[in-house]
Design a protein that fits this description.
Rossmann fold; 3 domains; 6-stranded parallel sheet; 17 helices
């Protein structure tokens, strides 16, 4: 069934269970895994421990002989004890890095738990090093500390650090905000062009030397729901947000494109003509997959901040029942359109008290649990099928063409469970 362009976005919002307790989340450094692939002339230098280095190496799956666009400046016992000048060591390492890699045009100094513990001021270090290596290299800093609420905040902090560098322009333009796979970005650009929106920019751009302009004429559209700090920084530069659901599934993508079209004065006939074929094709493909998920019960642990849009997709397009939708932070303004599309009786939880949530999950015995890596294996051992939430960030899932890939990510753990029982 083709999603309706007149979907009700004014429905009631369910009460939210707010929890504050023990958390089970990934580190914000994880965002480097997809950001270093996106910004092709940038480099991410983590100032942290060997644990930080092992996390990135294992999460990115980079072989030891590869030369990726990230590394770790190891804080060792000499730094922690004050025997070495951490700033001098950092300056020396940056000098060596830039001499070895002249292709670097943008260098991020990424803070971690250890660098914050020893009170290493990376913002001052970035300013000092920028003066030294400008104009050939821009040097910025942001925090990827595991103390943050959730791992996707690493991307938010990175993009927010970029906003002050964006050139000023008050010309009318659309800015799509959020790191997207290149293929997805190209697809969405083509769809937006078909709607008659001529000036479309993306943050982050593929090159640090081609940053998108921003100003009073900029309307921005979030492609990810976890970019609160970036949105605030853009609004400080004069940009205005376009309220919309997120482009997950056929319905979400169509409503996302419709919101952009309305903001730039396109009529609904143009929108229907430009999106109908893709939307119908995606809806038809999802209809073939739907029997594998329809009627199944799903429980979301808070992890990525993608939980609310994913719950909307699974319920409305795949027929799943929502047992609980937990999210680390529920941004009521950015998620208003998503929340209005959920059933009024949806159990929403914000924040985390992992023991209480585990108790509720065990009591409900859902067919599928979407959670972080730290909870997945124990729950599997208890007989529950799980989906790693981090895979939903690593995988291209936005847009019409990726709708079936998104659905299949939830089908596979259920299929695996069935095969294991046989």
């Amino acid at each position: 069934m083709t999603p309706s362009l007149s979907a009700d976005l004014t429905g009631p919002v369910a009460p939210v269970l707010r929890e504050r307790g023990q958390r089970e989340v990934f580190c914000g450094l994880t965002g480097i895994v997809w950001l270093h692939r996106k910004i092709q002339d940038a480099f991410f230098l983590v100032v942290g421990s060997r644990t930080c280095a092992h996390l990135l190496q294992s999460a990115a799956g980079v072989m030891i002989f590869a030369e990726p666009r990230f590394a770790t400046a190891i804080i060792d016992d000499r730094d922690l004890s004050g025997l070495a000048d951490a700033n001098a060591e950092l300056d020396r390492m940056v000098e060596q890095l830039l001499a070895r890699r002249p292709d670097i045009k943008l260098l991020f100094l990424v803070g971690s738990c250890p660098s914050e513990v020893i009170k290493l001021d990376l913002s001052r270090a970035a300013m000092r090093l920028s003066q030294r290596f400008a104009p050939s290299v821009r040097i910025l800093n942001y925090s990827g500390s595991g103390i943050e609420t959730t791992f996707t905040q690493g991307e938010d902090a990175c993009l927010a650090a970029l906003v002050p560098l964006l050139p000023k322009s008050d010309a009318p333009a659309l800015l799509v905000v959020g790191a997207l796979a290149d293929a997805v970005e190209d697809q969405l650009r083509r769809s937006l062009a078909a709607l008659g929106i001529a000036q479309v920019h993306v943050l982050p751009s593929r090159s640090a030397m081609e940053l998108p302009p921003v100003g009073s004429g900029t309307r921005y559209l979030l492609a990810q729901p976890f970019l609160a700090d970036t949105a605030r920084a853009l609004e400080g530069r004069g940009a205005r947000r376009i309220p919309a659901p997120f482009p997950l599934g056929a319905e979400g993508t169509q409503l996302w494109l419709r919101a952009a079209a309305q903001a730039f004065g396109a009529n609904m006939a143009t929108v229907r003509a430009a999106t109908a074929l893709q939307a119908e094709r995606a809806a038809a493909a999802l209809a073939r997959i739907r029997p594998a998920l329809e009627g199944k019960r799903v429980f979301f642990f808070p992890d990525s901040q993608l939980e609310v849009p994913l719950a909307r997709f699974l319920h409305r397009e795949m027929g799943m029942q929502l047992v609980e939708v937990g999210t680390p932070y529920l941004h009521q303004q950015h998620l208003a359109e998503e929340l209005a599309l959920l059933p009024a009786d949806t159990r929403l939880s914000e924040g985390q008290d992992v023991e209480r949530q585990l108790d509720r999950c065990r009591a409900e015995r859902p067919d599928l649990v979407v959670c972080g890596l730290g909870l997945a294996n124990p729950l599997e051992a208890e007989g529950l099928a799980t989906k790693w939430s981090i895979e939903l960030v690593f995988t291209p899932i936005q847009g019409f063409e990726q709708a079936t890939d998104l659905a299949n990510l939830f089908v596979r753990p259920l299929d695996r469970r069935t095969r294991l029982r046989v």
